[in-house]
Every structure is written in structure tokens, then in C-alpha cells.
UniProtKB/TrEMBL annotation:
The lineage of its organism: Eukaryota, Viridiplantae, Streptophyta, Embryophyta, Tracheophyta. InterPro entries: NA-bd_OB-fold, OB_Ssb-like. Residues 28-124 form the Single-stranded DNA binding protein Ssb-like OB fold domain. Transmembrane segments: none annotated. This is Single-stranded DNA binding protein Ssb-like OB fold domain-containing protein. It comes from the Eukaryota.
Length: 150
């Protein structure tokens, strides 16, 4: 249900969409989401390409192939591994420049991975003018969950 606001002249108006705040790779932190960033794809490595188990049943999305690729993406501040799923794999080709909208940080074996779920979007855009800073890979930093007792 969309909310509307009453204007002084009696008309109603829908609230405007928020302008996207573009962030840089170096500012990404564990457990955060809602990131919009422009990155260049450095490489893509398919880690899973699975056919559906039961080809007799045709009940929607589970009848599709499942493919997952780990892609190294970055900007002028650093790099991070991006987990591409299914249709996203085709867009994440090396040398592509993409806009990741509403991206989130997933943790995998103690390190950060960038991902876009069904609430986000990936757009291939014109080639970026920046040089990727490859010596600052945020996915190589290992994090440990520490419980603080007060």
C-alpha cells in the first residue's frame, strides 16, 4: 500500500524515491546492506553449475539450473568478492562495469562477500574511467564473531 501525503491545496502526492547514495568498496563493513556502488568486474569463476534434481516436476523456479559464480569486483578504493547467482552470472563478465543496487554483505567462512538478492538489481553500464585498486581485497580480511559479556 503506497502512502500519500496531503498537500495544502487539497491534492495528494506520493513521496519521492530516495536518491541513491553511491558508496566505495573500502567503506563496506560486515553485516551491512542497502549499498549502491559502481564496480568493474576483474574476473569471474563459476563455483556451482547444477541441473535440477527432478526434471519431471515443473513447479516453477526449482526446475531451473542453479549456477553460482564468485567474481572479483572493485573500484579505485579496493576489491571484494561478489557472489553472482543464476541470471546474474551472465552480467558479471570480466571487464564489464556494473551498478550494484541494494547490495548486501554476506559473511562466508569469516570473510566478506558482496551479493545482490531479489530486492536488489544489477545493471551493466558504460565502462568506468577509474583504475581498480587491486592491492586492497576486503574479502581477504578474516573477521571473528566476538560475544561481549557485560
Amino acid at each position: 500500500m503506497a502512502t500519500t501525503t496531503q498537500q495544502p491545496d487539497g491534492t495528494t502526492a506520493k513521496p519521492g524515491l530516495r536518491k541513491p547514495m553511491f558508496v566505495k568498496v573500502e567503506s563496506l563493513k560486515p553485516g551491512t546492506n542497502g549499498h549502491t556502488l559502481v564496480v568493474k568486474v576483474l574476473n569471474s569463476n563459476t563455483v556451482l553449475n547444477k541441473k535440477p534434481r527432478n526434471s519431471m516436476s515443473s513447479r516453477g523456479p526449482q526446475n531451473q539450473n542453479t549456477s553460482i559464480a564468485e567474481c572479483l569486483v572493485g573500484d579505485e578504493t579496493g576489491t571484494i568478492l561478489f557472489t553472482a547467482r543464476n541470471d546474474q552470472v551472465d552480467m558479471m563478465k570480466p571487464d564489464n562495469t556494473v551498478i550494484l543496487r541494494n547490495a548486501k554483505i554476506d559473511m562466508f567462512k569469516g570473510s566478506m562477500r558482496l551479493a545482490v538478492d531479489k530486492w536488489g538489481r544489477i545493471e551493466v553500464t558504460e565502462p568506468a574511467k577509474f583504475e581498480v585498486k587491486e592491492d586492497n581485497n576486503l574479502s581477504l580480511i578474516e573477521y571473528e564473531l566476538v560475544n561481549v559479556v557485560e
